[in-house]
Amino acid sequence: MTKFISGVLIGACAALLTAGAQAASQTTKAEYDAAKAHAEETYKVEREKCNSLAEHAKDLCVADAKAHRMRAEASAQAAYKNTPSAWYDQKLANADADYLVAKEKCNAMNGNEKDVCVTQAKADRTKAIADAKANRKASAAQGDANKEAADARKDAAEDKREANYKVELQRCDDLAGEAKDACVARAKRIFGKS
Question: CA–CA separation, 29 vs 27, rounded Å?
C-alpha cells in the first residue's frame, strides 16, 4: 500500500512539474505584444544601418534584417500560443528566413556557381521543413508512436535525400561531355536513382 501511495504522489508531482514547465514557457498577451514591437524596432534599426551600404552588401543586409524579424516574430507567436502547431510554424518561419538570406548570398555569384548555391539553399530549406514535419508527426503520434514516428522519419529522410540529389545534379551542369555524364552517373549511383 505504501508503494502505491508513493507511486501516486510521484506521478502527481511529475504532472505538476510538467504543467508548470508548459505554463512557464507560455507568454502573456502583453509579453507577446512587447516581443513583436521589439522585433519591429530591431528591424528598423538594422534596416537603417543597411542604408550606408551599397549594392549587394545592402541587399544582403536587408535580407538579414528581415530574417531576424521573421525569426523573432515567429518565436514570439509560438511562445504565446504554445501549441505544437505554433512551434511547427516557428520552424517553418526559421527555414524561410534562412532561405531568404541564403538566396540573397547566391546573388553575388554567377553562372553554375549561382545555380548550385540556389539549389543548395532550396535543399537546406527542404531539409529543415522535412525535419519539422517529422517532429510534428512524431509528437502527434504519441499513441501510435512507433509506426507513425518511423514513417515520419522515413518521409523526412526521403525528402532530404531528394534535395541532396538535386544539388549534386546541379553541380554536374558546370561540366560537359563525358565528365558531365560521369558526374550524373555518380550522383545517380550515390542516391539510388536508375
Answer: 7
Instruction: Supply the range of the domain harboring residue 114.
Output: 109-194
Cα 66 from Cα 175, distance rounded (Å)? 36
Q: What is the pTM of this model?
A: 0.67
What would the pLDDT profile of 97-114 be if each residue is shown by its tens digit? Answer: 999 999 999 998 999 899
Q: Is residue 88 part of a domain?
A: no
CA 56 to CA 59: how far, in whole Å? Answer: 5
Cα Rg for the chain, rounded, in angstroms?
A: 23
Q: Give Cα 24 distance to the centre of its chain.
A: 24
**Residue 159 within any structural domain of the chain:** yes
Cβ atoms of 39 and 73 closer than 8 Å: yes
Q: Quote the CA–CA distance of 155 and 131 in Å, as a whole number.
A: 9
Asked, for residue 3, whether it belongs to a domain, the answer is no
Distance CA 108, CA 63 (A): 13
- Per the CB < 8 A criterion, the answer to whether 74 and 25 are in contact is no
Cα separations in angstroms, 127 against 53, 70, 107: 32, 19, 22
